[in-house]
Amino acid sequence: MTSLEKFEGVKILGTWTSPFCLRVELALNLKGISYEYIEQDLRNKSPLLLQLNPVHKKAPVLIHNDKAISESLIILEYIDETWQKIAPLVPENAYKKALVRFWADFFERKVIETTIEFTENLKVFEHGVQKDFEGENPFFNGEIPGFLGVVVCSLSSWIKVLEMVSGERLVVTEKTCVLFMASCFQ
Ligand SMILES: N[C@@H](CCC(=O)N[C@@H](CS)C(=O)NCC(=O)O)C(=O)O
């Protein structure tokens, strides 16, 4: 691909095993945005992936209006801002929005990206969202799945793997967030 080539519509450079790619697809599907999905072989990275994500060289990459965006959480924010009126992922209230972003960031850095403290951090996450979103469903923005729901649900297919890694049953009671993400895809 050359930089002169134009991208039309919305495309995702993704890989089917990746929860990070799945969350981008979830957000686009929630908003009803059609896209072309281009599967990537991460053992043999394509020139297109390397060109569009030269810093991290990772999937997903979203391509929209001739522009490439990397990092799944940033892509989610871009999608939400670009198609703001359809199925908004974050609450309008600035404080609530900040809480959603705080817990999404925590989940990303302390739950997904850690292995040793994974289960401890998951408990902190569950406790924190229950406290900050008391009486509300932290994974929904009103009636529709929201930003945190998309981020957490994207991990659903990895629950078994995480249970094996941590040696703990993660889906324990009906109240756990982890059960929520599993049930989302049933
Ligand atoms: N923080 C990134 C993580 C993306 C990521 O780790 N992608 C993996 C696939 S699951 C990847 O492309 N790995 C290739 C590599 O590490 O070289 C995001 O949220 O988009």
TrEMBL record:
PROSITE patterns: GST_NTER (PS50404). GO terms for molecular function: glutathione transferase activity. Residues 8-87 form the GST N-terminal domain. Its EC number is 2.5.1.18. One of its GO terms (cellular component) is cytosol. Signal peptide: none annotated. Its main location: cytoplasm. InterPro entries: Glutathione-S-Trfase_C_sf (IPR036282), Glutathione_S-Trfase (IPR040079), Glutathione_S-Trfase_N (IPR004045), Omega/Tau-like (IPR045073), Thioredoxin-like_sf (IPR036249). It catalyses: RX + glutathione = an S-substituted glutathione + a halide anion + H(+). GO terms for biological process: glutathione metabolic process. PANTHER family: GLUTATHIONE S-TRANSFERASE U8 (PTHR11260:SF676), GLUTATHIONE S-TRANSFERASE, GST, SUPERFAMILY, GST DOMAIN CONTAINING (PTHR11260). Is involved in the conjugation of reduced glutathione to a wide number of exogenous and endogenous hydrophobic electrophiles. Belongs to the GST superfamily. This is Glutathione S-transferase. It comes from Amborella trichopoda.
